[in-house]
């Protein structure tokens, strides 16, 4: 729904505000990149853009969430992160561990590409990146008042995070709903940068 999309945009903007954005590891600065995915992927911000933190926040606030096709190309998002976003040209720091936060309310579509999602997640984790999945319920269209929100995709989320092979990584799957995304920011901060790393007002 439009409301849920607005909540996602607010959530991502608040994440950008909650971290200390800086290209410097020495001052514990966090770099942040973002893209959206549906049918294909859409660029929002690169890691190197944290040279101007206000620019990063403004891009988050104004990110376009218009649906492009009725697809969920999770495989494309994971591949693009590894091969474009986590590159020195786009600001990747070799001495910093890459953390990936995937927000999803379902599974890869078309289903024939699910193996690509698993392979690309494995490839991304093989670089040393850690993947945290925020699983959200599938919302209901406004024209279906009797619809009940449902959570689907847990098996895929486990494979993306690596928890299907390492039970310790189950902690990297956060199930929530759209109204509780703000509370999830602290949990994400603790997973990505350690306790006390984020502050929200």
TrEMBL record:
It comes from the Eukaryota. InterPro entries: ECM_Assembly_Org (IPR050525), VWF_A (IPR002035), vWFA_dom_sf (IPR036465). Coiled coil: none annotated. Residues 1-192 form the VWFA domain. This is VWFA domain-containing protein.
